[in-house]
Structures are given as structure tokens and as C-alpha cells.
Design brief:
Strand content: 15-25%
Order of helices and strands: EEHHEHEHEHEHEEEHHHHHHHEEH
Radius of gyration: 20 Å
Number of helices: 14
Largest sheet: 7 strands, mixed
Strand order of the largest sheet: 1-2-9-6-5-3-4
Helix content: 40-55%
Structural class: alpha/beta
CATH topology of the largest domain: Dehydroquinate synthase-like, alpha domain
Oligomer: single chain
Number of domains: 2
Bound molecules: nicotinamide-adenine-dinucleotide
Distance between the termini: 43 Å
CATH class of the largest domain: Mainly Alpha
CATH architecture of the largest domain: Up-down Bundle
Shape: globular
Number of strands: 11
Length: about 350
């Protein structure tokens, strides 16, 4: 049984489906019949997942199906990395009526989304995210793009897909680290918008229970609902979409610091969410009980909850002031007003920000 979410944006509406066996069971005919289809697969996605998709596509009377693999790394998420995809489209004479399918994590969905936005000025797209992070975050909302000249995601387009399929079976082959990175984003969604989801996560992870398939589907669904709601109201990040950056102002600074090298994005954001919650406590927007609950949940899923011994405060201040320069001298923090509600705090005093990292 799958669950469905309708994403409504000014540039298009689409369905997000969450459930198991989706790739085997989904009838793609309405999107695929008589069309040229290119599947771009992350090379680390197990072949069994591709086989299931291929069988469903074969049953959907596509005119032509091409499959190609890409290597996914932040380095390859670049103009150079896109070239082989454009070359296949061009050499196979794909026309404006073709359809692209991105099958992989957030790197793949960002790259394939950008190709779909720009090939022949825009062709149809299906996103099939295969990591937890890409399911609850990257594949919903139409942000696509690549890295350029040392900056992340600085070239891209807002481009909505026609369909997003989140098959929970595809998560079984994920590494623990990649799975936990996705949990960080689910916790983030609960903190900014859904106290009930936060309590549900506490019940699962504080009791050290094994996550059942039904619970996994449910938390992906509830988390995706929040992302879908936020982007439906603010497709191009003019206002509320910024709330999704909870924990990220710290996270970006942590990712730039040498002593935290080797931290994944989810780990940096997990730690960033604890600091942002601490800032909320210092600003008297949440209670110390709420702060402890947040810290405990983040810790319970296996994310770091304290800074390493060799952490250097000066490096942190330097990384923050670099961001400050880029952002017109103002830093934006997302703070909590209780669990399940968030707001923007513009440029809090530097000494308070420094205090907030002392956990
Ligand atoms: N567009 C957006 O709104 C948005 C939001 C958040 C993140 N992002 C982007 O998403 C990327 C991070 O996404 P991610 O964490 O999914 O990274 P990723 O695409 O690098 O995937 C993580 C790892 O899992 C592997 N993988 C993917 N599916 C697998 C599967 N089913 N089984 C085993 N291994 C599998 C990948 O090869 C990779 O090694 C970043 O580039 C980030 O900028 C975009």
C-alpha cells in the first residue's frame, strides 16, 4: 500500500508516492507510452532496483528506453559530470517529447533535474530517489543544480518533475551513515513543523526499537508532507522555504572547518540543529526541557551531539564571518519557538552565537 502527496506549485502540480514495491507495481503507461525514455542511474544503486524499473517500463509501451550510469560525487556534480548525459540525449536523437528518469540519491536527482530543465529548454522528468535524504528532501520541491568553481549548488534551476516515486525497498542497501543522514532531515522537519512527528520519532528511537517497514513509510510520508507543504507555499524560496534551513547556518560553517573534516552533511546539520536549539534556548524561545529532548533524539539516531576535542572556536568564527560577507553582512538563523514551530532570527549578537556552540 502506498501513500500519496500532491505537490502544488505555480509551475506545476505532481504526485509523490511513498511505499514498498512501487517500482514493480507502478503503471508508468500514462507518462511513458510512445515516448523516448532515458534512465540515468547512480552506479551505486543495486541492479535489482533497475531491473524492477526496467520491467515496469517495458510493460508501459515506451517507444525507446536508454539506460546510462553516472558516478556520483560532489566533484562529478559539475558541468563535466553532466556532459555524458547530454551526449547520450543528443546522439540518441532524443526529441522535446522525451522523458528523463533520475534513479539515485540527491546528487543524481539534482543533476538529472538540471539536465531535464535545460535539454531542449525543458523536457519531462520523473524522480526516483533512492536515499532517505533524497526522498524526504532533495527530490521534492524542484531545486536542481550542480556545483561550480568550489561553491555548492550555485548553478541550477527550479524545475518541477511530473512524478516522484519513493520506493522504501530501495533504502535497504543504503549504508548506515547515509541512512542516518536522512534521519537528520526528518528530525529537522519535525522540529520546524510537526510536534506529533517529533513524538513519534522519540517513541521509535529512544526505545531503541527496530524500525518496521510500516513505520519507515509513515515517517517518510509525514516528513515529505512537510517539505511538500512548505515548497507549495513558497516555490522559489522567497519566505517560508528558508525555515527548511534549520541547523544549516551552523552546519555550513561546520562543514568548512578542518577539525570537522570527514563529517557528512547530515552529521554537520545534526550538530547544527543542536546549536540552533541552544540558541533558541538562550533567546528564551524554548525551555531547557525541550532543548534536552531535542539533544536526546538527535543523539539516539547516531548523530554526533557534541563538538570534538580538537574543535577550534576561531575557525568557527572565521567560517561564520566568511558566510556573513557573502550574505550582505547579515546572518540568518532559523530558531525554534517550541518543538514543531520555527521562525527566522536575523543576525543575533555574535557573542550569543558563540555561546550557542558551547553545548
Ligand atoms: N535539491 C534539493 O532541494 C536538495 C536538498 C538536499 C540535498 N540536496 C543535494 O543532495 C545531495 C545529497 O544527497 P544524498 O545524501 O542522497 O547523496 P548521494 O546522492 O551522494 O547518495 C549518497 C550515497 O548513497 C549511494 N546510493 C544511492 N542510492 C543508493 C542505494 N539505494 N543503495 C546503496 N547506495 C546508494 C550514492 O551512490 C552515494 O554514495 C547533495 O549534493 C545535496 O546538495 C539537494
Amino acid at each position: 500500500m502506498s501513500k500519496s502527496i500532491n505537490v502544488r506549485t505555480p509551475s506545476g502540480n505532481y504526485e509523490v508516492l511513498v511505499g514498498s514495491k512501487l517500482l514493480e507495481d507502478y503503471n508508468f503507461k500514462w507518462l511513458v507510452q510512445n515516448r523516448q525514455v532515458l534512465v540515468v542511474k547512480d552506479s551505486n544503486v543495486p541492479n535489482k532496483i533497475l531491473e524492477n524499473l526496467s520491467i515496469s517500463l517495458d510493460n508501459s509501451e515506451a517507444k525507446q528506453v536508454e539506460i546510462m550510469e553516472i558516478e556520483t560525487s560532489e566533484k562529478n556534480k559539475s558541468f563535466e559530470g553532466l556532459m555524458p548525459i547530454f551526449e547520450v540525449l543528443n546522439s540518441s536523437k532524443f526529441n522535446r517529447d522525451c522523458l528523463l528518469i533520475g534513479l539515485g540519491g540527491g546528487i543524481t536527482t539534482d543533476m538529472v533535474g538540471f539536465v531535464a530543465a535545460s535539454y531542449l529548454r525543458g523536457v519531462d522528468l520523473i524522480q526516483i530517489p533512492t536515499t532517505l535524504l533524497s526522498q524526504v528532501d532533495a527530490a521534492i520541491g524542484g531545486k536542481t543544480g550542480i556545483n561550480f568553481s568550489g561553491s555548492k549548488n550555485n548553478i541550477g534551476a527550479f524545475y518541477q518533475p511530473k512524478l516522484v516515486l519513493m520506493d522504501t525497498d530501495s533504502l535497504k542497501s543504503l549504508s548506515k551513515l547515509d541512512f542516518v543522514d536522512g534521519l537528520a532531515e526528518i528530525i529537522k522537519h519535525s522540529l520546524i513543523a510537526d510536534k506529533n512527528l517529533f513524538t513519534k520519532l522519540e517513541n521509535i528511537f529512544l526505545n531503541d526499537k527496530d524500525l518496521s517497514d510500516a513505520e519507515l513509510t509513515q515517517i517518510i510520508y509525514e516528513s515529505s508532507l512537510i517539505k511538500a507543504f512548505v515548497v507549495s507555499n513558497d516555490e522559489k524560496e522567497k519566505s517560508d522555504r528558508a525555515l527548511l534551513n534549520f541547523g544549516h547556518t551552523y552546519g555550513h560553517a561546520f562543514e568548512a572547518i578542518q577539525s570537522l573534516e570527514g563529517f557528512s552533511h547530515g552529521q554537520a546539520v545534526g550538530l547544527g540543529m543542536i546549536c540552533a536549539s541552544h540558541l533558541s534556548l538562550l533567546l528564551e524561545k524554548i525551555s531547557s526541557e525541550e532543548f534536552e529532548k531535542i539533544k536526546n533524539l538527535i543523539k539516539s539516531v547516531g548523530l554526533p551531539h557534541e563538538l570534538p576535542d580538537n574543535f577550534n572556536e576561531d575557525d568557527f568564527s572565521e567560517a561564520m564571518s566568511r558566510d556573513k560577507k557573502i550574505l550582505n553582512k547579515k546572518l540568518r538563523f532559523i530558531t525554534l519557538r517550541g518543538i514543531g514551530s520555527a521562525e527566522i532570527t536575523e543576525d543575533p549578537p555574535d557573542d550569543l552565537v558563540l555561546k550557542s556552540i558551547n553545548l
